[in-house]
Design brief:
The chain is an alpha+beta fold and about 190 residues long. Helices cover about 25% and strands about 20% of the residues.
Length: about 190
């Protein structure tokens, strides 16, 4: 997970529901909460990256062409408000690698690596399915912004009231549910 420029470095899943930002790195969670509070104090908002990991997904879900598991996951996750990007596995980072670095190695007991995020050729591999979502900063902020009125005249607007300076913590359970729905659909 990432909030603004603060990125989680550890993965301790038992700590996710023990902090308000739902981060698996308790130290980063503190820094993330501080980043969110700074944005709130500035009457602004901050974006984030949310990661969802589905474990226990059986191999064989999906299709190599029309019903690719990764395509359906991306479709479902992009349908969540404020999501501006989805990557499966290493996603965009794979573009900077060679095939020898990106390919998932196999041994007789199964996959040794999971660079593809549990989906190869549109079909689940049996490895954990990993998806990351880019969450844009909320547009409803108290800081004055320039826009136009119905006649096209320039005006300034500031949204009053209570608004979340970072919606990533609210996105987590929604993203988990969307991944669960896609996987359940394939299982059925």
């Amino acid at each position: 997970m990432q909030v603004g420029g603060v990125r989680a470095e550890r993965f301790l899943p038992e700590t996710i529901e023990q902090n308000p930002v739902r981060c698996a790195d308790p130290d980063a969670a503190v820094a993330m909460a501080e980043e969110i509070e700074r944005a709130r104090a500035d009457k602004d908002s901050v974006g984030a990256v949310v990661e969802v990991i589905a474990e226990g997904v059986p191999a064989g879900l999906g299709d190599p062409v029309y019903e690719k598991l990764d395509a359906r996951l991306a479709y479902a996750l992009m349908s969540i408000g404020s999501i501006k990007g989805v990557e499966i596995g290493e996603g965009f980072a794979a573009a900077a690698k060679r095939g020898s670095e990106s390919n998932d190695s196999m041994r007789p007991e199964g996959f040794v690596t999971n660079h593809a995020g549990g989906v190869l050729g549109g079909i689940s591999t049996g490895a954990p399915v990993v998806a990351r979502l880019a969450v844009k900063p909320a547009s409803s902020i108290g800081k004055e912004q320039q826009t136009v009125d119905l006649e096209g005249n320039p005006v300034a607007v500031a949204v009053e009231g209570r608004h979340d300076p970072c919606i990533a913590p609210r996105v987590v359970p929604v993203a988990e549910a969307m991944v669960a729905l896609v996987l359940t659909d394939f299982l059925l």
